[in-house]
Description:
By secondary structure, the chain is an alpha/beta fold. The protein has eight helices and eleven strands.
Amino acid sequence: xxxxxxxxxxxxxxxxELRQAARRxxxxxxxxxxxxxxxxxxxxxxxxxxxxxxxxSAAAFAGLAALPRTTTALISGRALASxxxxxxxxxxxxxxxxxxxxxxxxxxxxELALDEAQRRLLAEVRAxxxxxxxxAPGTLLEDKPAGVVLxxxxxxxxxxxxxxxxxxxxLQDRKGVFLKNGKRVLETSxxxxxxxxxxxxxxQITGATAVLFAGDDVTDEDALGRLxxxxxxVKVGLDFTQAEFRVEAxxxxxxxxxxxxxxxxxxxxxxxxxxx
Length: 276
Ligand SMILES: O=P(O)(O)OC[C@H]1O[C@H](O[C@H]2O[C@H](CO)[C@@H](O)[C@H](O)[C@H]2O)[C@H](O)[C@@H](O)[C@@H]1O
């Protein structure tokens, strides 16, 4: 078990302020519950394909997805295929993948298509990273439709730092290549996108009247920065954030989703007598 996967220490209770915010947002006309995946719904683990949602989070998220006037979404850095494989999202959950470069909004959604120049550039980026990984024990690559991730979680700190520095020095000024820092990863992409754009897009297409977003990583700040008055933003972990609320670990996210499910169920049951 990695340190990030350990159960949170101390009581799991949400702060009274966050509980109150969940109660308030549950009253909104159309609620969008948008969640980051790794480090938020799922604890961080050493191997990306072994990440899974906490069962309590998955159950509460599925409960929310089944409610009227409530849309669930995942906004992830993962490729859509990888996100589906590890998250097994409820069937109607909207998906933003590759940090906003990919979107699944239902059957028939357009797939991300790169042009010839982007495909060539992506191959070049991969070749650069392959060479680095060969020299850096414990590092590995993850492919996405528009990018490649350099993972360093299984490398020593020195090796990880050198590998990321080497990749940055070659790629950071390369036109058309976009880099993002993540937790023990350097993300590369040939498409410029962000979770902020993803969140704004989801708000528009769902007509949501309020949004709850939670995320743990620096890339989630793009989404947190797009929240508006009446929305609820939650940072998972102790790093710097612009979010109004903070919880310590994914186990607290489960508790938040359960609280929201309870409140929202009461609201929709009152207004729509047929709903449990
Ligand atoms: O936006 P997210 O859903 O949080 O995805 C961000 C990246 O998550 C994955 O990497 C992170 O989680 C791995 C599994 O827990 C961990 O091993 C790695 O160190 C983390 O950075 C995923 O592999 C990336 O593609 C995502 O962009």
